[in-house]
Design goal:
Elements: H1 2-10, E1 16-21, H2 24-38, H3 44-47, E2 48-52, H4 58-66, E3 75-80, H5 87-98, E4 104-109, H6 118-123, E5 125-129, H7 134-147, H8 155-165, H9 169-183, H10 190-197, H11 205-213, H12 217-228, H13 235-257, H14 265-276, H15 285-295, H16 301-318, H17 326-337, H18 341-346
Parallel strand pairs: 1-4, 1-5, 2-3, 3-4
Length: 347
């Protein structure tokens, strides 16, 4: 990514790039930046070609790769979803990548969730677009507010907006445009975010997860319907986050039993997340590990063992449209895995 940014500044590019990873919004952002940096608006129609793998046969691909620049130093070809190419076209692409033209810049854009072709990745300059972490996401929000909206956003407002939209950069970009219009170009503060998005501090998915981890069942249940009404939140993703949290706390309980000090829990949780890879925590990792570390003492190994079958049952129930509403399923799950104090004493 650093090398790509340097190329955008200098104008010197490698012959072929392969964009892959989880964040499609950032991929398209960089595609636009490459097009703007490498083609002149007056001749762009002649020197830019946009292709899609599933709609591109070998003749169309060959024509795009063999055409000469017109009144320019190079042409640019953007090929989205190269995995959609049929065999003949894939073979033609690989043949080209082995001897790329000096006057053509080729960018292959692999959609999120699709594994890049190993041979293509080897032949291209690969750029992985990972989902932004907590700090990088807030920096992106601040940068987007400045460059795309011509305004600024206070750190507390950026943090609340990040919690509201998560890693959905398209959603966040849209909300920033609304916020800029709402404040009429003035700096965006937390009150503006609350007014435009409807999200309130203490009423987010992260807050619900905090309550569940702390075994504050009544407080967690009170947030269910409001959290499920927020964008990009469903009962499925909420159960996924609860499952990840429960397993992580269970890992922490076992680690403490082995003698791990409480002061090391946060760093060990970070290591666990990095090792596990694609884990949905429902909020930034920093917030998640802090919550898990302070909640370990409130759970036992038996509590974790009892919770896991209920999480599995909730996941299955959500796939059956004939059962209760999503809110009812999540509420029942919370009652099962984080029973209120009086129920636990009675048990």
């Amino acid at each position: 990514m650093k090398a790509l940014k340097a190329s955008l500044e200098s104008g010197r590019f490698d012959p072929a790039y392969l964009f892959h990873g989880r964040d499609d919004f950032l991929k398209e952002e960089k595609v636009r930046a490459i097009v703007e940096r490498t083609t002149d608006p007056s001749t762009r129609d002649f020197n830019l070609e946009m292709l899609r793998g599933g709609e591109c046969d070998v003749a169309a691909l060959s024509s795009a790769l063999e055409a000469l620049p017109m009144l320019a130093e190079r042409r640019v070809v953007i090929l989205r979803d190269p995995a959609g190419l049929k065999k003949a076209a894939r073979d033609r692409l690989q043949q080209y990548l082995e001897r790329p033209a000096a006057d053509l810049l080729l960018v292959l854009v692999v959609p999120a969730g699709t594994k890049p072709d190993a041979a293509q990745l080897k032949a291209c300059t690969g750029v992985e677009f990972k989902a932004l972490g907590e700090d990088d996401l807030q920096k992106w929000i601040a940068h987007q507010a400045d460059t795309a909206c011509g305004t600024s956003i206070e750190p507390a407002a950026a943090a609340l907006l990040a919690e509201y939209g998560g890693n959905d950069l398209a959603l966040l970009a849209g909300e920033l445009r609304k916020l800029s219009a709402f404040t009429d170009g003035a700096p965006i503060d937390r009150a503006a975010v609350e007014a435009v998005t409807g999200v309130r501090p203490g009423h987010t998915m992260g807050d619900l997860l905090d309550r569940a981890a702390a075994r504050e069942t009544t407080a967690a249940i009170a947030l269910v319907e409001e959290v499920l009404a927020q964008p990009k939140v469903s009962a499925v993703v909420l159960v996924m986050a609860l499952a990840a949290q429960t397993l992580a706390i269970g890992w922490g309980v076992a680690a403490r039993a082995r003698g791990l000090s409480a002061s090391r829990l946060e760093s060990e949780f970070f290591g666990l997340l990095k090792e596990a890879g694609n884990v949905y925590t429902g909020r930034p990792w920093g917030e998640a590990v802090k919550c898990w570390a302070r909640s370990v003492s409130k759970w036992s190994a038996a509590d974790i063992d009892r919770a896991l079958p209920h999480l599995l049952a909730a996941d299955r129930a959500l796939k059956d449209t004939k059962v209760s509403s999503e809110g009812q399923i999540v509420t029942s799950l919370l009652l099962a895995i984080t029973p209120v104090a009086s129920t636990r004493r009675a048990a």
